[in-house]
Write a structure and sequence with these properties.
11 strands; four-stranded antiparallel β-sheet; mainly beta; seven-stranded mixed β-sheet; single chain
Amino acid sequence: QVQLVESGGGLVQPGGSLSLSCVASGRALRDYSVNWFRQAPGKEREFVAAVSWGGASTYYTDSVKGRFTISGDNAENPVYLQMNSLKPEDTATYYCAAIQRDKGGLYYLNLQSIRSESEYDYWGQGTQVTVSS
């Protein structure tokens, strides 16, 4: 079992920044990498950002490229999501989720797997991010 806890959400004005953290606990953490999803009100949960198990590769959904940065590696260490130039459309509950390293990719990301919710074994409870003036 792996438990994931997100932190760092809050209310920020458009153009501002927030840094989210995800800390994992439990067994066999080294077998997993951790990525980020979000769910806006009235919408389905969507993939946001991923980092490979070894930390060498990252991937972002188009809407956050150039503004968000994911850092970290395997689940033994915290995974961060630095969010800059925030927009109202970034308002959502942000979730971190753990995927087995062989599915997500050790050094090169498996893009099909990391974007699919069904490939993830564990999810955090989420942290709310609200971007509003």
